[in-house]
Amino acid sequence: MHTIDQALGVMMELFEPVEIEEVAILDALGRCLAVPMHARHASPAVDVSAMDGYAVRLADFGDRHLSVSLPLEGESRTGGPMPAPLAGGTTMRILTGAAVPEGADAVVPQELVTLTESNGGAPRSIVFAERPKPFANIRRRGEEVRVGEVIVPAGHPIGPGEISILASQHIGRVPVRRRPTVAIVSTGDELIDLADTPTPGKIVNSNAYGLASAVVEAGARPWMLPTVPDDKEAIAATLRTALRADVIVTSGGVSVGDHDYVHEALQAVGVKRILWKVAIKPGKPIAFGVSDRRDGEAGTRRTVVVGLPGNPISALVTFAIFVRPGLHRMMGDRRPMPALIKARLGAACRHSVGRVEFVRVRLSAATELDDDGTHPLTAEPLVQQGSGAHASMVGCDAFAILSSARGDHQAGEIVRVLLLDPGSLRADRCWMGDYPPTRLIPT
Predict the structure, then answer these.
(1) pLDDT for 402-414, tens place per residue?
(2) Which of 45, 272, 422, 427 has the most CB atoms in a 10 Å sphere around its CB?
(3) Is the pTM of this model over 0.85?
(4) Tens digits of per-residue pLDDT, 79-95?
(5) Residue 106: C-alpha distances to residues 69, 113, 140, 321, 429 (Å)
């Protein structure tokens, strides 16, 4: 039986990145950049004011720190024409974001000056109480981004901030990895679809819907194939169709039961088994293989195949641990693994030595500070933990990881927790270098 690290180290290498496509900028949201994007323009494009105030020349202040009065000449406003150069011995009204006139080397905020009015009420001159510092309140040209600088690196997830900076550079189309297609094959004589009428001994194929939604959440495209009975030839025929996908996820039939035919069917369609059984709970009978075959002029085509257990929770847990990171890697994510954080168990957990167990938990922040001054997270195990208990995934935020080397875990113990929220951190803290994962999951 394989450890989780062994399995991930083998599997992740075979989830190879897919082809690059170019999409409209908003369609890139949530995906990963395929190549680095460089700045086309400096930002700011010219020196601009960071405040509403008055542009000045420091030379007009000399070495004096007493008040200085300068006549007001002109205005530079945001979106207006480039201002005329600032003449010596004058000041210019300037608004936030407006271009700094040539010759000016500081901006004094409007709240720090006194206006001297003419008879008509218009400002005639501006009195400055003290000498400003060089380039005070000026955002220099290229201060944020220089021309040619990488603004978003390859493999970086694209969120609203990335969309914003790309748009600011007049980039309307973005190169990303295409969304891989994931074929979902469910096997079992007992399965019916949602549209079918339940009868004794039959159950709805909930795994297909749960896995399809997990595929969507991961950013890929689900392809739900019709449910297949426990028949080797029927399973093989469906798998031949499914091989058009980038990934096949099967549900059920990978254990050692009398009617578990998925292994034989996979062999019949040319899928090479890479590994079977991982020391985890739930989900031990997970299987993994690949199909490499000629695809006309396109050359060799690879389909990754992951055989998940038939129990609903086992299927979702193993998908989150093994399949979702693989899909992220196929889509070019440079850090595809979900983050591991630390939390305090909210209740005792019974556990047997031998397998790493993933306990479904709900996370909450403590109201009182810990000894080190932090607010520790509490991981409260959900009441139902059975591999067939759908309720154990409702409201589940994360999996608390119980070590295979220990027995029962007590309330209050610090454990590692694997976050499920795809928007949570996916950080270097859990992905040691690029490849392969090193001690990703404690054993």
Answers:
(1) 988 888 999 988 8
(2) 422
(3) no
(4) 999 999 999 999 999 99
(5) 15, 14, 11, 55, 43
